[in-house]
Amino acid sequence: MSYSDKVIDHYSNPRNVGTLDKKDPNVGTGLVGAPECGDVMRLQLKINPETQIIEEAKFKTFGCGSAIASSSLATEWIKGRTVSDALAIKNTDIVRELALPPVKIHCSVLAEDAIKAAITDWKQRHTEAVLAPAETAKA
Amino acid sequence: MPDALSPTVHADHFAVFGLSRRLHLDLAALEKEFYRQSRKLHPDRFARAAATEQQAALQRTSQLNDAYRTLAEPIPRIAYLLELEGVRRRDERVDADGGRANQVPTELLEEVFELNMALDEARSGGLDDPGTRRQLAEAQEDFQSKLGTVDTALLERAAAWDRARDAGESGGEILQQISGLLDRRNYLQNLLRDVAAVLSPTP
Ligand code: FES
Fold first, then answer.
1. Which percentage of chain A shows pLDDT scores above 70?
2. How do A27-34 and A39-48 pair as beta strands?
3. Which domains does chain B have, with CATH numbers?
4. How many angstroms away from the CA of B102 is the closest CA of chain A?
5. Distance from CA of A49 to the nearest CA of B (A)
6. Which CATH number belongs to the domain containing residue A121 in this structure?
7. DSSP 3-state of A48
8. Structure confidence by residue, pLDDT tens digits, A56-82
9. pLDDT at residue number B165
């Protein structure tokens, strides 16, 4: 199986690899895995709660070239966009952009799931951060 | 002529050996039957047969080999059964909502991720650090023992499925559990392979 040029480009020169501070209440972390191949992907987003804009996106993927390319592309797409824009991204968009073959579709699913997981985590943590002071006050 | 000549398409690998779908097999009997059929289909016996019959014998042989290879080992046998029962396709899990199932427990994902980070560090030269090396060796042991636990659980669930089937139940829930265990096993195996590669690189 041969990788498309776009996959190779993202794979050999991945954008936005790295880590954000997990404890920052504005950071959401999504950790997802593809059990069928045993790969894992972590995506972290720093989101401005006022504007709902994704200011920072970093990923770290231990997996195949397509998974790395999918996550790299995903960070490029969502940086500077709003949360709802990011949630609208479908794995099929990634498949099309990277020309992934059918056996590599699950790699793109991983990226879509990671975006959703990171945003869910951010929402949760953010609500907690807002509620926490009130609860401490109660206690 | 022997009836072996028709290129019979068996319903599944179990049927090739005249077995019903069960996860526990008598391996000695399986092997014996494999050899018996192999002899029956041996090309020498068809040296003077018509081309179509030779062809049929070849086809049956390859079917027999496939079936034996799949059934003789417990993990491929289990994976094959899940495919047959529609629980997963060859490389992915089938889920009600169209084929995705990320039911890997978070704590396993975290472990897998952490270890991968450590492996990364070790790969980029950190292995000279005795602390890293020790950490990796410990992780290796830990994952090895986890793999053992998974395998024990798999065999236990496999037996439970057989019992459910014998009792005329579908055993669908058990197959889901088995599928989850197989996923876990995939992760552990990948990790073990990667740790081994870092700890003792083959030149
Ligand atoms: S092969 Fe598993 S993520 Fe690509």
1. 93
2. antiparallel
3. 13-72 (1.10.287.110), 106-199 (1.10.287)
4. 7
5. 26
6. 3.90.1010.10
7. strand
8. 999 999 988 999 999 999 999 999 999
9. 94
